[in-house]
Specification:
- The chain is of the alpha+beta class.
- The protein has 4 domains: 1-42; 76-251, Biosynthetic peptidoglycan transglycosylase-like (Penicillin binding protein transpeptidase fold), CATH 1.10.3810.10; 337-614, Beta-lactamase (3-Layer(aba) Sandwich); 622-683, no CATH class.
- It has 24 helices and 14 strands.
- It has helices at residues 2-42, 82-92, 104-117, 127-136, 143-159, 162-170, 182-190, 199-206, 212-215, 221-238, 243-251, 269-281, 287-292, 303-316, 366-375, 416-422, 425-435, 437-446, 468-479, 514-524, 541-544, 588-591, 593-605, 679-683, and strands spanning 53-56, 62-66, 296-299, 324-330, 337-341, 383-386, 412-415, 490-494, 500-503, 552-557, 561-567, 572-578, 622-627, 643-648.
- Strands 2-1-3-8-9 form a 5-stranded mixed sheet. A 5-stranded antiparallel sheet has the order 5-4-12-11-10, sandwiched between helices.
- A hairpin with a 5-residue loop joins strand 1 (53-56) and strand 2 (62-66).
- Helix 8 packs across helix 11 (243-251), helix 15 crosses helix 17 (425-435) and helix 17 (425-435) packs across helix 18 (437-446).
- It holds the Pfam family Transgly.
């Protein structure tokens, strides 16, 4: 009886134990499932490790870098040789692809070893645990830190696959000397990308993270070599390499650079500043993302043109002069800003005179005025009288008396083509007032200039300030046949994984009539053509002997500003020189700086390039007519010389020149310099 009772008690105990065990298992399962669901709901932890942002020129060279003192360049797992990951797995976590974040066998072994040694002699952290520590935690050895490490390890394992975790790990571990990640380490130790690492080099690097202060070959080559052999042995045990490969790699002689790639913005610092500003203004990025987001910023900078521009500025302006300069070059077709100089010395002043300074453009505004005139019925042959003139107004405006340079006037009628070439101020103001003062303002806006303009008679002479980069953009629109462009410093931006997060917009809007834009472009070649000399010489005469090809351009000056801007169909550039505080430019030498910088840049930048690619090509509805440059009529055989001038079809003059009828029986008399000129100068 007692046996039966004891059996029943044991059965009841077993049942209770079974029920409790089942309940406990259920609770544990529910807890684990809830924890797993919670982890899933939380989603992947943000991988916000600071990475170096790199800036690239158009040719792919690096022109700048920003970082927090940690050099880190993200590289995908697919891009590195397989022996890189095999070496790291072999020495750090051989069961990486088999566990779920924790290697329980290693943990037990490490605990036993540590108890036996009465101290910590062995660790059991997996690659995932180390990655979690690198991403989210400090190195302090507390229980709270250990629990957080476990928490983040689980989150990583639940939300990322093994290759993603391994890729993150090899891009975040420290290799010493400020190099974080395999790419930065490879660049520092070997001077090459991790894509090119050999087995011996990979094994050497894989051994460093255990103790960068001990196993760096730059600190102790002997210890580094010993550690490398340990890594190779581990790779042999895992079957990643053969004994022969391990032996050959251990015998390979390695050479070390010990230098981070030089990514500081020594070239084009003003350009570099502008790019960083546009990353915020146009790409919408915050300061941290820009500085430490691992971005790849691809810019339009042409390294060769930048060097030429910097040399042109420094080699032209006297070292003893306080004159400042702003320079920019642009591809008229794309708007890509290919070179930029914001001042003579960035360390003395970081103020960017090419993009920030607002200065009076003087006569460089006239091409914009004459585009409006051509659009309203003027032609290159339209004549107005050049003479001292006072303009009086009935609407209360004060009277206005413009003056030509050195008070020189034709005291006769001149064509618009000659007025532009000689920069006749009276002609410009008459044209401006004839059109209506709002017309020039509207045209300026159409050409992308946003600075405020005053509707006054003197606007025709450039008395309202503009930024050099804005005026260059306007000239580029004329150069490309009237298609809208905007200055592009940043072509595109990629995140650290190569995803494009910003791309410069492509604008296809036609804002000018292409035929009129071409006629104006050809008119602007007149400043270099001595056939248009009249009561004064053409404004580009000092540059003619330095020219090897045809350019369109316009110079300008005020008491405190000197300008030169111009283009070929493939390259436009602008120069401003003057004093920052608006002091008057009094020395003749100082007044020539802008022109000399401009022509030296253009000639060197286009040296060796096919002239045909940079030649002006007229649209179909434009015709060329031989014109007497003084009266704007069709030239005849009796005219001493002519200038081939372009007109929109139907607007060319019908009347022939009769000023030289007494010479009909004679051969045309050429200008005394005509025979010395190149073919294009004789035609144009």
């Amino acid at each position: 009886m007692e046996a039966v009772t004891g059996s029943k008690k044991r059965w009841r105990t077993f049942r209770v134990f079974s029920v409790l065990s089942l309940l406990a298992a259920t609770v544990i399962t529910i807890v684990l499932l809830s924890f797993w669901l919670w982890i899933k709901i939380l989603g992947p932890p943000p991988l916000s490790i600071p990475q170096s942002t790199l800036y690239y020129a158009a040719d792919g060279s690096i022109i700048g870098e920003s970082n927090s003192g940690e050099k880190r360049y993200w590289i995908s797992l697919d891009e590195v040789p397989s022996h890189v990951s095999e070496a790291i797995i072999a020495i750090e976590d051989r069961t990486f692809y088999n566990h779920h974040g924790f290697d329980l066998k290693r943990i037990a072994g490490a605990m036993a070893a540590n108890v036996k040694a009465m101290g910590k002699v062995q660790g059991a952290s997996t690659i995932t645990q180390q990655y979690a520590r690198n991403l989210f935690l400090t190195l302090d050895k507390t229980w709270s830190r250990k629990l957080l490490e476990a928490f983040y390890t689980i989150r990583l394992e639940v939300n990322y696959d093994k290759d993603e975790i391994l890729e993150g790990y090899i891009n975040t571990i420290s290799f010493g000397h400020g190099a974080y990640g395999i790419e930065a380490a490879s660049q520092f130790y070997y001077g090459k990308s991790a894509k090119e690492l050999t087995l011996a080099e990979s094994a050497m690097l894989a051994g460093i993270p255990k103790g960068p202060g001990i196993y760096s070959p730059l600190i102790s080559e002997e210890k580094a070599k010993s550690r490398q052999r340990l890594v190779l042995g581990a790779m042999e045990k895992t079957g990643a390499i053969s004994p022969e490969e391990a032996n050959a790699a251990s015998l390979e002689q390695l050479s070390f650079i010990g230098k981070h790639p030089h990514h500081q913005a020594e070239m084009a610092p003003y350009f570099y500043d502008t790019v960083k500003k546009e990353l915020k203004d146009k790409a919408g990025l915050d300061n941290r993302s820009i500085a430490l987001g691992g971005l790849r910023v691809y810019t339009a900078l042409d390294v060769e043109q930048q060097e030429i521009a910097e040399e042109a500025v420094s080699g032209t302006i006297s070292e003893t002069s306080d004159i400042q300069a702003g320079f920019a070059a642009m591809d008229p077709e794309t708007g890509y800003v290919t070179a930029l100089v914001g001042g003579r010395n960035y360390h003395d002043s970081s103020f960017n005179r090419a993009t920030q300074a607002v200065r009076q453009p003087g006569s460089t505004i006239k091409p914009l005025l004459y585009y409006a005139a051509l659009e309203h019925g003027f032609t290159p042959s339209t004549i107005l009288r050049s003479e001292p003139t006072t303009f009086r107004f009935s609407d209360g405006q004060p009277e206005y008396t413009p003056h030509n340079y050195n008070n020189q006037y034709a005291n006769a009628e001149v064509t618009m083509a000659q007025a532009l070439a000689l920069s006749d101020n009276v002609y410009a103001v008459k044209t401006h007032l004839f059109l209506g003062q709002n017309v020039l303002v509207d045209t300026i806006r159409k050409l992308g200039i946003s600075t405020k303009m005053k509707e006054v008679p003197s606007l025709a002479l450039g008395t309202s300030g503009v930024k050099p980069i804005e005026l260059l953009n306007a000239y580029s629109i004329i150069a490309n046949g009237g298609k809208k462009v905007e200055p592009v410093f940043i072509i595109r931006v990629e995140d650290f994984r190569g995803k494009v997060i910003y791309e410069a917009p492509r604008i296809k809007e036609q804002v000018l009539e292409p035929e009129i834009a071409f006629v104006l472009s050809h008119m602007m070649t007149g400043m270099f053509d001595e056939k248009l000399n009249g009561y004064a010489t053409v404004t580009g005469e000092s540059m003619v002997n330095q020219m090897s090809r045809e350019y369109a351009g316009k110079s300008g000056s005020t008491n405190s500003d000197s300008w030169m801007a111009g283009f070929t169909p493939k390259l436009a550039s602008i120069v401003w020189t003057g004093y920052d505080k608006g002091k008057e430019i009094s020395l003749t030498e100082d007044k020539l700086y802008a022109k000399n910088i401009w022509i030296r840049f253009m000639e060197r930048a286009l040296e060796g390039q096919d002239e045909k690619e940079h030649a002006f090509s007229p649209p179909a509805r434009v015709i060329a007519v031989p014109i007497d440059p003084f009266n704007g009529k069709k030239a005849t055989n009796s005219c001493p010389f002519f200038r081939l001038t372009y007109f929109v079809k139907g607007t060319e003059p019908a009347e022939f020149c009769t000023d030289h009828l007494h010479k009909l029986d004679k051969e045309p008399i050429l200008h005394h310099k005509e025979k010395k000129k190149r073919w294009w100068q004789r035609i144009f």
